Hints:
The protein is built from 15 helices and 15 strands. By secondary structure, the protein is of the alpha/beta class. The protein starts with a helix and ends with a helix.
Amino acid sequence: MKKSTCICLVVALLACVAIPFAVHAQDKTIRIGAMYPMTGRAGLYGIDSVAAAEMAIDEINGKGGVNGYMIDATFTDSKARPAYAVRVATRYITEDKVHFLFGVVSSGVGLAVTEISRQHKTIFIGTDHASTQLTVDKMQPYYFRVSNNTFMSMAAGALYLKERKATKDWTTIAYIGPDYAYGHDQWNELKYNLDRLGVPYKVVGEYWPKLFEPDYTAYVTSLVRDKPDILVSGFWGGDTVAFLKQAIPYGLLQRSLYFHPDAGGNYELMSAMGDELPAGLVLGARHYNNWPDTALNRNFAAEFKKRTGRFPTYAASGAYVGVYAIAKAVEAVGNPDDTEALVKALENLKLQAPWDPDGFTSYMRPDTHQLKKMQAIGVTMPNKDFPPATMMLGDWKIYKPEDVMPPNDYIKEKRK
């Protein structure tokens, strides 16, 4: 073969190899790699999150995208398994070249994926999981959470119990929650905040069923014997529904005040239980369909129902806000490729969200990468405006971010 022919072949081969890189360099796409559970007790959270994220993407892309960039997301079933989610996250980064990791419902999965985010210096937008460890103990530069953490929920819960102490006498308290980071964080943070507020209490029971436990009977009968004035629950999703359905026949909810400040007030509970759901339970959540009564929240719930045929669980709002957080950051930076600039933009994020009451805008706390938002706790009461639910929350107590965020000394101690 002649030398000139060899050179031509080499040039041709290099040209073929170079074409994908040239196309990639000109690609005007913001690539998101999302992970959510799609099956089992946690499946509804994932299904709603995907629907809400797609709704936000359609809204943004329908207006021309962000600085000429269109948003594209890939969704994978995390199976609520940390090891599997780690493999998915690694593939997203190394093969799909995503700009952002996104999503996750289980805190156990979130704690695993944040390590992949850190190792590869890829931003991870947490939209639903709530363990405070991700923003305090194990906070890393590339992780940001747009839903509230358990500390905020439990600080609001402690304030609620302090106020209740002034009007109704209670002394004893028991806790039941899933035996992993999310469950333990809630209980430790509630006790920390009760102690910080000087609220006296006596613990009469602690119970730690596994996540997705099928039978709570033994726990229910033990709690009936404990007779706590306040029964604090740390369940989420289908576990909440299963526990309450099993507790009702034993009269547990008549003997103790059921108090569930982080994930108890999720619409999934109201829709799944219907007329079975008792009045008078005290619950909190990350988003409510009937609070705040703002145009943004009404439109969010109505559009979600139009697209899916049902009202959203709170997981949907986190995914919706997460997509808009990415859009705001890319808008500020000008492109999705400058990761360090995007980190700075997210640290200064201010974003009007469906869960924000009039006059308030959610904002990022730079030293924890945790979005700060109002915390609302309500009481179950009859309301048929959001079928198939026949009970919703009302009689709201609202707590400001500055009253429920972790104090600086708490953060310093945890980060030692």
